[in-house]
Amino acid sequence: MAGLEELKKKLQPLFAAEIGPSMGLSMDPYDSYMVSNEGAVDLLSKSYGVYSFSEHGLEKRTSGILDDIDNSEQAYRCSSREMHVFGAIGCGSSSVVYKAIHITIHRILALKRINVFEKEKRQQLLNEVKTLCEAACFQGLVEFHGAFYTPESGQISIALEYVDGGSLADVLLLKKSVPEPILSHMVHKLLLALGYLHGERRLVHRDIKPANLLINLKGETKISDFGISAALNNSVAMCETFVGTVTYMSPERIQNESYSYSADIWSFGVAMFECATGKFPYSATEGAVNLMLQIMYDPSPSPPKDSFSPEFCSFIDACLHKDPSARPRADELLTHPFIKKYEKESVDLAAYVRKVFDPVQKLKDMADMLAVHYYLLFDGADGQWHYARSFYDETSVFRFSGKQFRGQNHIFPALTDIRRKLAGERPRQRLVHVVEKLHCRAHGDDAIAIRASGSFIIGNQFLICGKGVQAEGMPNIQESSLDLANKRMGTFQEQFIMEPGSSIGVFIITDQELYIQA
What we know:
protein serine/threonine kinase activity, Protein_kinase_ATP_BS, MAP kinase kinase activity, ATP-binding, nucleotide-binding
């Protein structure tokens, strides 16, 4: 019993935190939300202003809800009707993330869905959208492409850059640890982004961990997941909330003390320790209470000096000072000897990432989605077909029936004519694709090759056979009673080469060839 009382005494700050409001997210007393008759949701905050989400996108205003004038400051047009949504790629405590393609520009995205009617999730949504709006163009943060509300589900979707590699947590699952020279270059890039959050945006991320540190196939690192970030009014301001992943939480946060940017530095140090050694520096097998006691009262962990360079050990020691005021700022760590030690070494992060994650499989996954996206456009509503024009540029080539068309101004009319003839004069004559075989592969370093073949049937929607990729809303041909052999009106074979466009996640059809047989 005496041991239990001693344990409670040590954890008294945590018990006090559980009773008080600071265990939840810091809620502005004016935080609320309104649902209009037009199917829009206004998230209201005295600190943040008004974020108005509708089926057509997001509009941010700073003034109050009673103002009648148009005071929009930022607007992002992004609609659920402009998305082809595919399978889930991950989930967290407050959201599920899906792969999607933005129909208007053929950009592969990550679509994060959050239920707006749950209060804590709503505050996380406000935090994330505010951060993304304010730092939308910084290259070390995941790129923000807009958000929209879906009344039928009560969800708000945030459209984000699709990072085609994975997280550092994924790297550790596959490779166990990251070599020092590689890690040094990653750390340099991540510190630039963290320094931007702290210095320019005055934000404490509050959930730095390997799962929230991403890297793409080009070797570009990204910080993600700003759902529990907190804004500080000045460089010496403090937070007073107990949120985030306890595993990577600093001692002052666990003890429910005020904290600032240095709390992120601690979390970053723990994450980099884990990346280098392949092991979390504390024993987390005996429960959360024991873990928190270790973080508060055990000496700060340090990498084995016989396995790691003095510079790396010094870097971790600097990040993991128990005294928050002794931890360097992110911009100060950029000049640390661990960064300088490897900065002149020829380190190819892209090559490293492509050894960790199979780029062929990654590109094939994207090719599957892009193929389905193309046929959904071709066999879809007339009102969306015009978006197919931007799938081509002036160098694109399309071959059909012995003729060659070059450039979007010639290819799009040619395809439109083929589409019109397949549609027939009446709806009951309309022919649509049934893709029976779909082969996708990498083409060179970044391009993808697609070969599709199948049948034309009278119908109103594109179908794909087998257990391949499906977009939301597509009928499952395996669950239907379609007699394809008797319904077949013709066959087709088509092949594409798609290459990355000038914007992240956007692909262009550079070469296409179509054969149709009645």
